[in-house]
Structure formats: C-alpha cells, structure tokens
Amino acid sequence: MNVLAILESDIMKNLIEDVLMDETAVQNVKVIKPNSDLHSINYKSVDMIIIDVRNEYEKVLSYIEKIKKKYSYIKVIVIDVRKRSKLFKRFIKCRAEGYIVDIFDKEEFAYIMHKIIIGKKFYDLDLLQELFDEDEKNGRNKLTIRENEILTLVGDGYNNKEISQKLFITENTVKKHVSSIFTKLGFKSRKEVILYLKKNKRATYL
C-alpha cells in the first residue's frame, strides 16, 4: 500500500510515519505540504490519502474530493482537530473512509489506522450523530401541515377512519396522506410511527 500524506505539521508527519511503519501492508509513505503541486502526483499508484486540515485549504480539499470520485478505491482519511460538521458532511458524501478529530495517544491512533487499512471505516461519533439528527429533521420538514397533523394522530393510535372524522376529510384522503408520510420518512408500519414519535418526545413537526 502506497500512502500519500498531505500535512503541514512536522509533529503529525512524525506520528503518521511512526504509526504506518508498523503496518506490514504499507510499503511507502510520501509526505507533502498542502501547497505542493497535487497535479504532478500519479494517483493511480496511490492507495491511501491522509490529509490534516488544521487550516482552511479549500483548493486542496476540493481536489482530493475529485480524486476520490475518480479513483474510488483510494482510501481517504481526514484529520480535523477543529471538528467541523460541514467539512465532515462533504467527505461523508464523497465516501471517505475515515474522519478523525481527536488523537489522544499513539496507540489509539494506530488502532484506528489499522482498522481503516484492513477495510473498516472510522468516523467521529459526535459528528455522525449530528448528521443523523439533521437528516431526521430534514425528513420531518418534508411533510406538509396536514401530513404533520395526520402523523401526530397516527402516533396517538387513531386509525384512518377515526382520523378522517377528526379532520373532516375522506378516509381515502387520509390513506393518501399516510402513504405519503411513510414514503417521505421511510416508515413501513404504524408501529414505526409510534416508536418514532416517542423517541423524539412528540416534537412539533411544522
């Protein structure tokens, strides 16, 4: 495995070289600065890219995103001590294999790197939870006001006939709204709706 590390810090350079030296799968580690000529690199011979984004390197990050899309087999690991959720979303979208925000000690870092090298993925749990929460919120925002009303009533255990009577609409209209809700939020049963509303403390979905 050939590794390309884009690093500004000499401390990070020493750490990564030290950790990867113990990995039998790694044959070569090339370290370059963020201001290096990235176009001159033969990416066909690169198996992993590690990039430390302590500062803003928009051109570098955009370029790496393009490389990942072109060479999907290249493993991309981002080290972001500033823990930026927007940056995290970008690299999740381009299917980066790792997103690390804290390096407490060498052993932990070595463990994470080894797992990624053998085919696992590693993402910061806090950033991952933020992403899930945002996706959930966006899903709720897709519902119309009427769909939100019906969602709440379904969660209260009312059937379609009872909902139609409460909202003074036809039962067929209720069925259409329920079907739309299930499609938008990915539900398969009314039981899932009830569990979903309990989990989210019956928040207002407007």
From TrEMBL:
Gene3D superfamilies: 3.40.50.2300
Short name of any one Pfam family annotated for the protein: GerE
PROSITE patterns in the record: HTH_LUXR_1 (PS00622), HTH_LUXR_2 (PS50043)
Domain HTH luxR-type per the UniProt entry, residue ranges: 136-201
Family matches, as SMART domains: HTH_LUXR
InterPro entries membership: CheY-like_superfamily, EvgA-like, Sig_transdc_resp-reg_C-effctor, Tscrpt_reg_LuxR_C
Coiled coil region boundaries: none
Listed name of the protein: Response regulator transcription factor
Lineage: Bacteria, Bacillati, Bacillota, Clostridia, Peptostreptococcales
